[in-house]
Design brief:
The complex is a heterodimer of chains A (331) and B (492). Chain A has 331 residues and is an all-alpha fold. Helix content of chain A is 77%, strand content 0%. Chain B has a domain of 198 residues. In chain B, helix 17 packs parallel to helix 19. The longest helix of chain B is centred in the last third of the chain and has 32 residues. Classes of the chains: A mainly alpha (331), B mainly alpha (492).
């Protein structure tokens, strides 16, 4: 709460980003207190991790200071107060926090808790709800991320005129020299981050984790690399157009699991028919869709970041050219 | 395959959207997208026939039965909506290739088709599902793709318009999510029909009231109901023409559907209309919306703005029909959903053709177009007549039933106001007609030719549909009537 107010009052955008990261971390611990380990995990990796990185990338384009504003938004203040009032009004009749007889614990949840082991065969109930009982929602979420990725691309993608970007290698080198310590430390860390991402990806059945978190962690590692070693170096390994295709592949992979089960004579996304044994089928289904989720999330995050970064470079080049023109004009 | 119709409706465009990226040649992608749209159209026709013959279809996703898994529940209401969306989506797609060639740069064509299909997916998903949270997920798909589609507009103001829409739309979506969350907290379920049963016990609690309020306000934001309409005119005006034609005809309709679905099916009539003054509030807002938006439309200089404000006014009519709260009233609303989709897509497509030929849709640029683009302009005239509600067009049919409904309910003042509102429509349509037919062409504009057939085909298909369903009302009236009666029949 204090942090949120601080964010609103602050005009230095860099500090705002840092505070947002802390906010994400604090709310992640808040979720841990609420026993929602999976959500906490996601919040920690998304809220505290990757969104901070993306915002930093945005700041490098726009500059650090917020433009000062004058107008007093009285109407918005009123709306906010009415909304807040409604929210508090709504909480008055809510069941008490943690009460056993709350409807949430009475109706649908018991079956998830008691029978998911027999029906889905996976110890992590959250994964079996997300991956099987409500798999279609998760498919929708992946499509949301895919849409967001396309949206960013359609806004930021530059017209293709990839001449050789004439960045001064000397200045680039200089900048990297200055970050020597950071570079060496992260060079040592990145393999482990990647490894951890893979662990999270395939261990989602048993502990907290799964495709969303793994994808984000994976992307974060590569973004870290890109920030320190430059866009061109990173894109040698991760070709942007391949990554864009991968985003599509992930979504397709997920949906095609549904189609396969449909071809096997069951309903869309019914994993029972994927193998002879229903439980094995569930297992395969969840593994494949989690992989699909991971691929799409990671590649969308990456391509968003690459687009930002390419934009930034283009701007810098333009400015440089403009500067040269100005110089020649004054001469 | 017949058993899988409900899910195919959503999954076909969902899978086609990423597939577009593998084709990557503008024309090829267009043909592919067109095929996909047509497939969903055929699918929706089959669904409607199936539902009309044998009643509600239930499809359990993942094979899990309802409150545990997600189910699709297709009844007459959403089968009708699916048909509206898919038919407009397909017809508009015919003109897409020609139009975006002028309005979008080559490397964004694939993105455009991909987003278009995703937007379609989102709308199908919202309409087809029987699960409250699933609605939210697909709402996100449809709105995110809509923001991006609008931002593709050539004009730089499109970015600002899309940003405004993004802020308003996100607030709306968040409100809907809060509402759904509260409902889940009170009932422990997300399934709509299950919610309906379990809400009866907790209907008196303040949490449910708050949930109701959040849901309604959130939906009304999406609906662009006066006074929450501010995002709409610019979003429609600066988006690419195809996008305007598509969204104007479909997206607000989906929001109207959500309003009907939540108030009738989930909360039930007795809760929605007796314990809260919702009916009166919406009636007043609807009427004020009709007048404010129509009067604003009269003073606009950009023809897209004129029609956008007219859309807000039409939303007002739909809400009036809805808040009369009789079977006939809701039927008039449903009819108007269908009819308004027909007229607005025809009109905005015709504007797209004008944009294609002269590169502007300012009213002053329309001078003399009546003689230079006779087929396009006459389409605008017929669409306009339909908007006013002249007999032999679809506009007349829905206005007629709206009048009957209000007179039946004894609301004479409402009926009079509806007629007055239609008079305002005459004024803003006349401004376009006057400019196009009674002014000489602008100097240097002598060579403007008729639009290409790829435009004229879809436009005239829609215009003919406007007239056909205005004369032969059996089909549309029958379906709308059955849908609204089932709404009142299930929850007496």
């Amino acid at each position: 709460m204090v942090i949120a107010i601080a964010i609103v009052r602050m005009t230095d955008l860099l500090a705002v980003v840092m505070l947002t990261g802390i906010y994400g971390l604090v709310s992640a611990s808040f979720f841990v207190v609420l026993d929602a380990v999976d959500v906490a995990f996601t919040e920690a990796s998304v809220g505290a991790g990757i969104s901070g990185l993306l915002m930093l990338a945005a700041i490098t384009i726009t500059g650090r200071k917020e433009a000062p504003k004058r107008h007093k938004p009285l109407i918005s203040l009123f709306v906010v107060f009415v909304t807040g009032g409604m929210l508090i009004y709504g909480t008055m009749d809510m069941p008490y926090f943690g009460a056993v007889d709350a409807p949430v614990h009475q109706h649908v949840a018991p079956r998830y808790i008691e029978q998911s082991m027999e029906e889905v065969g996976i110890p992590n109930i959250v994964t079996s709800v997300l991956g099987s009982y409500r798999a279609f929602d998760t498919l929708g979420e992946v499509a949301v991320i895919f849409t967001a990725g396309i949206g960013v691309m359609s806004l930021l993608s530059l017209p293709r005129r990839r001449k050789k970007p004439q960045t001064d290698d000397a200045t680039e080198e200089q900048m990297h020299e200055r970050h020597m310590v950071v570079r060496i430390v992260s060079k040592a860390l990145i393999p482990f981050i990647l490894l951890f991402a893979l662990y999270v990806q395939f261990h989602g059945d048993f502990g907290p984790g799964g495709g969303f978190q793994a994808g984000v962690i994976f992307a974060a590692a590569i973004i870290l690399y890109t920030m320190l070693f430059g866009l061109d170096t990173a894109q040698k390994v991760f070709n942007p157009s391949v990554i864009q295709l991968l985003a599509a592949v992930g979504l397709l992979l997920y949906a095609s699991v549904g189609v396969v089960s449909m071809l096997n004579g069951a309903n869309f996304l019914d994993y029972n028919v994927l193998a002879d044994d229903a439980l094995t089928g569930q297992h395969i289904g969840i593994l494949v869709i989690e992989l699909g989720v991971g691929i799409t999330v990671a590649s969308v995050m990456l391509s968003i970041f690459f687009n930002f970064d390419a934009r930034r470079q283009a701007l810098q080049n333009n400015n440089k050219q403009k500067g040269e023109q100005d110089v020649s004009r004054t001469l | 395959m017949l058993a899988h119709l409900p899910i195919l409706q959503v999954v076909i465009p969902l899978m086609a959207a990423p597939l577009c990226w593998f084709l990557n040649r503008s024309k090829l992608v267009w043909i592919f997208a067109l095929l996909v749209c047509s497939a969903t159209f055929i699918n929706s026709v089959l669904l409607l026939i199936e539902v009309m013959n044998s009643g509600t279809i239930i499809y359990e996703l993942g094979g899990w039965e309802a409150p545990w898994g997600i189910e699709y529940r297709i009844d007459k209401l959403n089968a009708f909506l699916l048909l509206i969306i898919s038919s407009i989506g397909t017809v508009v797609m015919f003109a897409a290739n020609t139009s975006i060639q002028k309005e979008l740069s080559e490397d964004r064509h694939t993105l455009f088709y991909s987003l278009y299909l995703l937007s379609l997916t989102g709308m199908y998903g919202i309409v087809a599902t029987g699960d409250a949270f699933n609605v939210f997920v697909f709402l996100e798909i449809s709105s995110l793709s809509a923001y991006a589609l609008i931002a593709l507009g050539k004009d730089r103001r499109a970015l600002w318009a899309a940003f405004q829409y993004l802020i308003m739309g996100t607030i709306g979506a968040t409100f809907i999510l809060i509402g759904i969350g509260m409902l889940y907290q009170m009932t422990g379920t997300l399934n709509m029909s299950d919610l309906a049963i379990r809400l009866v016990d907790v209907g008196h609690t303040r949490t449910v009231f708050a949930a109701f309020a959040f849901l309604i306000v959130g939906i009304c934001l999406k609906l662009a109901l006066f006074p929450l309409h501010l995002w709409l005119p610019n979003a429609y005006a600066y988006a690419p023409s195809i996008v305007t034609a598509f969204l104007a005809a479909t997206s607000t309709k989906v929001a109207v559907y959500l309003l009907i679905r939540f108030t009738f099916t989930v909360f039930g009539i007795s809760f929605s209309f007796t314990s809260l003054p919702l009916q009166d509030i919406l009636m007043v807002l609807g009427l004020v919306g009709v007048f404010v938006a129509s009067i604003t439309a009269i003073y606009q200089q950009n023809v897209k703005h004129i029609l956008a404000y007219s859309s807000i006014a039409q939303v007002g009519y739909m809400i009036i029909g809805y808040s009369i709260n009789t079977s006939t009233g809701v039927m008039a609303t449903l009819l108007h959903l269908f009819n308004h989709a027909l007229m607005k897509s025809a009109l905005f497509l015709a504007l797209g053709a004008v944009m294609y030929r002269i590169g502007s849709v300012q009213l002053s640029q329309f001078q003399g177009l009546g003689r230079q683009m006779p087929l396009t302009m006459s389409a605008i005239v017929i669409g306009g007549l339909s908007l006013i509600g002249v007999p032999l067009t679809v506009g007349f049919v829905s206005k007629w039933y709206l009048l009957i409904a209000s007179v039946e309910a004894g609301m004479w003042p409402v009926a009079v106001l509806i007629l007055l509102g239609s008079l305002l429509a005459i004024v803003y349509i006349w401004r376009i007609v006057e400019m196009a037919y009674f002014k000489p062409p602008l100097p240097g504009r002598d060579t403007v030719k008729e639009a290409p057939w790829t435009f004229l085909g879809p436009i005239w298909a829609l215009v003919i549909a406007n007239i056909y369903f205005g004369i032969d009302t059996r089909l549309s009236v029958q379906i709308a009537q059955a849908a609204s009666q089932s709404l009142f029949g299930i929850n007496p």
